[in-house]
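Schema walk-through. Below, the input block comes first and the output block second. Nothing else is stored per chain. Lengths vary across the set, and this one has 118 residues.
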Amino acid sequence: MSAPITPNDVALQLARLARDLDDTVRILETVDRDSTEKRAAADLAFSRAFMAATGSVDARKHLATIETHDQRLAADVADASVRHLRRRIDALKTRVEVGRSYGAAIRAELNLTQAGVD
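--- output ---
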């Protein structure tokens, strides 16, 4: 059996979660900017490829799509990274809230125990 968790243990865990949340927000900022730049580069490459192609509008559109597939894929992967980090931030926020509730429950239990001793 493990030792009982103390309010100090809960506070330390909440501090770790807060640091992790802060680090993740910082990473999200970088990844979001990268995603935006890749999306803009993919759009520009598509427009250039479309304008350079010959044939019907549909043929030019499909040729441009084929020519810019790698840029589009990079932009889509970058977007997925942004979504993942946002989900991670939501999960960290939930863990912080659970920790706060757990800490409150431990404090309440300690107060009851101390009240019973008096």
